[in-house]
Amino acid sequence: MTTYRDKAGRPIVVVTGMGIVSSLGQGKEDNWKKLTAGESGIREISRFATDGMKTRISGAVDFLGEAAWCGPALTEELAMRAADEAVGQSGVGAKGDFPGPLFLAVPPIEFEWPQREEVAQAVGGDTIDYDAMLRVAGEQRFQRYHERFLFGSVAAHLADRFGTKGSPISLSTACASGATAIQLGVEAIRRGDTDAALAIGTDGTVNPETLIRFSLLSALSTDNDPPQGASRPFDKRRGGFVMAEGAGALVLESLEAATARGANILGVLTGCGEKADAFHRTRSSPDGKPIIGCMREALNDAGLAPEQIDYINAHGTGTPENDKMECLGVTTVFGERAKDIPISSNKSMIGHTLSAAGAIEAVVTLMTLGAQRIPPTINHKEPDPGIPLDVVPNTARDAKMAHAVSNSFGFGGQNVSLVLSREPA
């Protein structure tokens, strides 16, 4: 007899469709092939001039050609492609009538430099303050900018395309955003608000201003040559993350609804944990309590013990601070067993996709469970004695896995951990 509720009496939430776009390519097949081969999508930036910049590399999605005229448009295009794949695989709502809400992780939206210059020149000056720019953009001649640069515009367009129900939710919790979108979808189904939800994380903001801002925070790798070797999570030589773009999308359903329509179950969203850390705008609390609490909450929510976790998809940005704190969290939560649990970072290959990272990594984690094969952490040449973890260095590995944790820890103290399972208990 099939059990449709978890140990806490809540509807079991499953995944019936997934989609992904990254610097490695579009779609699950292309990404999985390259991830397990240890290929890198990091390249020298060609989208704009980088003269005088310390960082000249990124994991930009450049294979779409002129699909977008600015960051928000590319952010939307990436989300659309990932969601098309997810909804198409699921078969639910494939005709533009998705039977549940949209939860969208999206970067903060604001005027970019080319559009600022265009508006400023149109009103007869070289510069214009931001408030005036918003007023001018609201005029008929700049109506496309006014609509495009509203924070909810990407979600509104996606809701129209896929026919999601209710007001679409746009959210931004820094680098944890994609995981937060999934968590909100899980919670909506567990509450009984809906039988299905579309969760998307997307980010297409490799642009000069964003690059400079992160550079001023000393967060980015400056190892530009060769680009493919710059992202080095958990390596002693790590020096910063590599900005990237992409999107991940998941169709979430209650197990009961998915079973009733004969859907193929790709995995289970077994647990979610979230902890805030207001210690610093970029640094983690030195005691690691929010990261530790985040993972423990996810395990408790899943009703699983630490010894039942077979793999961890690390946040693993490649910054000195993040990797050290994630190691502290993992060793505290998993104790002596921490050194034996495989933990890998796909950011070593695709870069850090910021608002999209949590969703992309959830898709990769589910593919890992489905294939029983772990993508590696590439560029791992000099182990850090302070990080005594099995980081699956450089080469993919086959393993038996039933349950996995996917970590997403964001600037400003936004932390989310997801527990994903291969099949319902």
From TrEMBL:
The record's EC number reads 2.3.1.179
Pathway note: Lipid metabolism; fatty acid biosynthesis
Tell me one Pfam family matched here. ketoacyl-synt
Q: Where is the Ketosynthase family 3 (KS3) domain?
A: 10-422
Specify whether Disulfide bond is a keyword of the entry.
no
Specify whether Transferase is a keyword of the entry: yes
User: Which GO molecular function, any one, fits this protein according to its record?
Assistant: 3-oxoacyl-[acyl-carrier-protein] synthase activity
**GO cellular component terms attached to this protein's record:** cytosol
Keywords of this entry: Acyltransferase, Transferase
Coiled-coil-forming residues are none
Q: Biological process GO annotation list?
A: fatty acid biosynthetic process
**Protein family membership:** Belongs to the thiolase-like superfamily. Beta-ketoacyl-ACP synthases family.
Could you tell me what this protein is called?
3-oxoacyl-[acyl-carrier-protein] synthase 2
